[in-house]
Amino acid sequence: MKDKWNRRVYVDLYAGAGYARIRGTARSIAGSPLQALVVEHPFDKYIFCEEDLKKLDALRDRVKRVAPDANVVYVAGDCNERIADILAEIPAGSVNDSVLSLCFADPYNVGIRFETLRKLSVRKIDFLMLLALYMDANRNYEIYVKEDAVRIDEFLGSKTWRDRWDTARKDAIQFPQFLAAEFAGSMETLKYLPTPLHTMKRVRSDETNSPLYYLALFSRSPVAYKFWGEVLKYGTDQRTLF
């Protein structure tokens, strides 16, 4: 797959500090940026966005130690607000310079805006996303369903979802499942292939085994879903990326 493209770009919208402490233990694990840097076939360019400046500085130091020769660009700020800068760092590609990008997003809430993804989608880009539909949306249900609340509107890129939710809940559909299907439908408007719920991986808490996220791939290529199917077949419910 890597030989099909002249350049491959990895984008991390919530890059963090590079390491994350496992709650209740003294153990830390490498975050998605460091995991992406040490894959067998590294990407040609990395774009790391992080809102917390202290975390971003820590990530810079760790990247220098782990992969000093990697081509890395750092974007400070909220990915929703800095999307123009992120997009500018992704090569547009051409007939003689093919570029494929992978964008990973693992926010702690549903604060990522669909408009942000829409802007990125002008590139040849796949999205691997942790959708915090249990961790955030389900826990804050009473807040998000209010008529004047815009968080879910911006997440889905739709202001009409409440009407569909009124119907769905009468059919005993859970709110996280409803939002997952709605989000997948929104991605289809960007010409991404259908992503039914059974192709999403439910990620659970290490401590309580309760669900936190849906891990979902969004691609315009059937080949990508073939590989994704293998991941689902042999993967676990824990939060590992590569």
Q: Which CATH architecture?
A: 3-Layer(aba) Sandwich
Count of alpha and pi helical runs: 10
Q: Which regions contain 5 or more consecutive residues with pLDDT less than 50?
A: none
Q: Report the radius of gyration as a whole number of Å.
A: 18 Å
Percent of residues in helical segments? Answer: 25-40%
The strand order across the widest sheet is 5-4-1-6-7-9-8
Largest beta-sheet details: 7 strands, mixed
Q: Name the beta content range.
A: 15-25%
Which structural class do the helices and strands define? alpha/beta
Pattern of helices and strands? EEEHEHEHEHEHHHHHEEH
Number of strands: 9
Shape designation: globular
Secondary structure layout:
Elements: E1 7-12, E2 19-21, E3 28-30, H1 32-37, E4 45-50, H2 53-66, E5 72-76, H3 83-89, E6 99-105, H4 114-120, E7 125-131, H5 133-138, H6 141-144, H7 151-156, H8 161-170, H9 175-188, E8 201-204, E9 211-218, H10 222-234
Parallel strand pairs: 1-4, 1-6, 4-5, 6-7
Antiparallel strand pairs: 2-3, 7-9, 8-9
Structural description of this entry:
With 242 residues, the chain is α/β, with parallel strands linked by helices. The chain has a single domain, classed as Rossmann fold, CATH 3.40.50. It is built from 10 helices and 9 strands. The longest helix is centred in the first third of the chain and has 14 residues.
Kindly list the characteristics that best describe this protein.
242 residues; alpha/beta; two-stranded antiparallel ribbon; globular
